[in-house]
Amino acid sequence: MSRTLTILFAIICYAIFFATFLYLIVFVGDLSFASRTVDEGPLSPPAVAAIIDVALIALFGLQHSVMARPGFKAKWTKIVPPPIERSVYVLAASVALMILFLGWRPIDAIVWNVTSPLLFDLIWVAFWLGWALVLVSTFLINHFELFGLQQAWFNARGREARPPRMREPFLYRFVRHPLYVGFFLAFWAAPTMTAGHLLLAVGMSIYMLIAIRHEERDLVDLFGEDYEEYQDRVGMLTPRIRRRSA
Question: pLDDT tens digit string along 218-237?
């Protein structure tokens, strides 16, 4: 691919991702103006719906986990040019989410329903805080590299990326994975929790816990003792409180 086509492809993939990310917020939040959300869409018998929904979550999880592994990337970049490898990953993740949106079957049994106005508002604050945390976390670790734009831009300018280095920007000083913390908040903060929403929250939570373990192994391989020391000092999803020695 020419440098111009490379950067154009990266921009298109990023635009698709960002639109998909915004719709994910709508989908999980069951916002009223959308016809397809976690609680709105084609109905199936609960058992059938659960099988379909679990399969959709598994498809998303497999795409994310397999394509993110260094071994897969090493083989994949023999087919896909390295400057667009991340953009292709982002595009594939977006398509996997679109399939989930389109195929999702709501299960409308109510698990809990918050009636306290104060608690209702606090849960919505937690929901929006979760998404804000996700977005902020991406910028702290390099948003444009994470979603493939930097690689295409450097290729267009004939620049080489610097070797990755161990960093602990802001939120990463308190927890190792603030981005995942944001997703946990976003998926679980629901004033009205249906069985379908609960299935999505549980499924995505299991996926994220598995993904963190794989990601941490990759980071130890990349940064060695520096990352192992970081693991010992900073909590994975919650701040680590240590007693000071006397």
Answer: 999 999 999 999 999 999 99
Tell me, yes or no, whether 105 lies in a domain. Answer: yes
Print the domain residue range for 227.
Answer: 3-233
pLDDT digits (tens, 9 = 90+) for 125-139: 999 999 999 999 999
Q: What is the pTM of this model?
A: 0.94
Amino acid, single-letter form, for residue 28: V
DSSP secondary structure string for all residues of 77-136: TTTS-HHHHHHHHHHHHHHHHHHHHHH------EEEE---HHHHHHHHHHHHHHHHHHHH
Asked, for residue 204, whether it belongs to a domain, the answer is: yes
Tell me the three state secondary structure of residue 190. coil
Query: b/e per residue, 162-184, with b = 16+ CB within 10 A?
Result: eeeeeeeeebbeebbbbbbbbbb
For 190, phi then psi, to 5°, come to: -140, 115
Q: Are 208 and 201 in contact (CB under 8 A)?
A: no
- Give domain status of residue 238, yes or no: no
The pLDDT of residue 240 is: 87
